[in-house]
Amino acid sequence: MLSRKNNERLLIPLLLLPGVGYILVMIVTVLSMTVLQSFGFYNLTGESHFTFKYWMQLFDKQFVDSFLFSAYVGLGSSICSMIVCYPLALFLHAKFPGKNVVLPFIRIPLFVPALVATFLIINILDYHGLVNEILVWLGLIKEPLRMRNDQYALGVLFIQMWKNIPFQLVIVSSALEGIREDIKEAARNLGAGSFTLFTRIIFPLTISSALVAMIMVFIGTFGDYSVTKAAGPMYPSSMAVLMHTKAFMFQEWNYAACVGVVMIVAVIFFVACYTKIASIFTKSY
Amino acid sequence: MNDISIARWPVGGRGGSRFSIRINQWFKLIAVTLLFAIWVGLPLFMGVLWSLVDPDHPWSYPHLFPEKLSFYHWEHAFKYTDIVPAIGRSFFIAFCSTLLAFALALPTAYALGRMSFPGKEAIKIVILLPIMLPGMVVALFLGRTFIMLGLSQTYIGVILGHALLGLPYMLRILIISFESIPQEVVDAADNLGAGIWTKLKEIYLPLIMPGFLAGSLFTFIASIEEFNISFVIGSPSIQTITTILFSYLGYNFVRTSSSVISLILIIPNLLILFLFEKYFKSQYMSAALGKV
């Protein structure tokens, strides 16, 4: 028995190798390529040597605007989606007839590719789209609003919300389902009303899942290329668009690499912030 | 509504409140259905309408609906664009990358799901890296490496990239499947003298089957709708459905053509969603999508 245990121990690295090894090789390649190129190595043409030149040139107005824009889109869509998603998840948590029939339909946007979602929502939000027509008809606005390629990226935010609310709904709903019924019963027996039940039981037990859902949406939208390119403003562009344009249009791979490093660091920073918030919430209860 | 409740449930108190709860529930169903119709149904409906606009009768302000419908744009898309081979290419790439991801994930998921060793939790975080890093950064600098290796603009390059993005989903779902196999079953097989192959064939593979299907569906869909890697590594030599759609949306906006291609791109996903609905259990969904 003991020797078999030992055999299994030897087996573990072998078993881990295909999955973890593949991911590590690829990711380490990507990361080192990004960092090294940002310091002037691995140039396609010309000399390759260590230099801070590209980092010194990086922080111009275009770059700062792009960074702020991406952070705005990322934070905006993750927060706005959760503001809609959380009450909706509570609303859908209760039993009602036909729930199992309706729910798969609400999940549809989860399975709609981002580019298709972009197209579908642009249709609705366009200058003579349905939303504008209805608002004008109702007399709420005099002139149709500009919601595509607009300065405030309203179209982008709306597309991201459309696609990501069902995604967050799945995560928050499963957290809600995970709360054991007897805990809620116990709280009710001790005289908790539905408000206390929410603030003392349901909210603390779902907040970490909600934050994870927000992190996932933030990562996706902060680094987004296609939606911003199609529906976002001409200037500023998102970080991903800036990076891709510099690399492929102008062959400035070193500049693109610097942008890439900043993106990775920013994602790590924001994820750390969200995690910190989650730990504050869970500690306070 | 109150009158009806009195008529049908003349005994007051409990009966009445039960009925009002039921009304409340039906109200919820109607509210949710309406919400769905506006949130999902309306954009899809408008998309379908745009794909059916007749080129001789333009649909423009102030017409709320197109005057005449025709299949002109569908015929045009199938006849004169690269869309049919692109569908084939997308499915071929998705199939290969799913297969590769499964082959790579199976042994690793077994180790992470059924064995205990130090550093396991750290490894479970590491396997999330491909979907935690910004997609365009991964695509661009993986592409840059592939240029040096000669894998850029090849099927192998795109498949390797898509398998990388699918692996986290596949791994996480398979780990959960392995974890949920009761130890008694494995012990019983051990006692009856089953070797590792017998256990694999008779216990592990049948019991992880639902997880395998769910993981494959996730990886498959992730590959079909993936844009960044297909765009950087694949195009222009290998055009998939997403890169074609981007050419209609990102560079020059052709609404009718993009509507046809959008709908073509949705159909397989929706088929998968509804045909395999039972495999998208919430435990798999949340395992794949969140719960770090």
General description of the model:
The complex is a heterodimer of chains A (285) and B (292). Chain A has helices at residues 2-38, 53-58, 61-93, 99-106, 108-111, 114-125, 130-138, 154-177, 181-189, 194-222, 226-231, 239-248, 253-284. The radius of gyration of chain A is 24 Å and the shape is globular. The mean pLDDT of chain A is 86. Chain A is built from 13 helices and no strands. Chain A is mostly helical and 285 residues long. The longest helix of chain A is centred in the N-terminal third of the chain and has 37 residues, at 2-38. In chain A, 77% of the residues lie in helices and 0% in strands. Chain B has 292 residues and is mostly helical. In chain B, 76% of the residues lie in helices and 0% in strands. Chain B is built from 14 helices and no strands. In chain B, helix 2 (14-51) crosses helix 13. The longest helix of chain B has 38 residues, at 14-51. Chain B is globular. Chain B starts with a helix and ends with a helix. The relative contact order of chain B is 0.11. Classes of the chains: A mainly alpha (285), B mainly alpha (292). The interface between A and B is large, with 88 and 91 residues.
Give a quick set of tags describing it.
heterodimer, A: 285 residues, mainly alpha, 13 helices, B: mainly alpha, globular
Would you list the SSEs of chain A in sequence order as H and E? HHHHHHHHHHHHH
Major β-sheet profile of chain B: none
Structural class, from secondary structure content of chain A?
mainly alpha
Structure class of chain B: mainly alpha
Query: How does the major sheet of chain A shape up?
Result: none
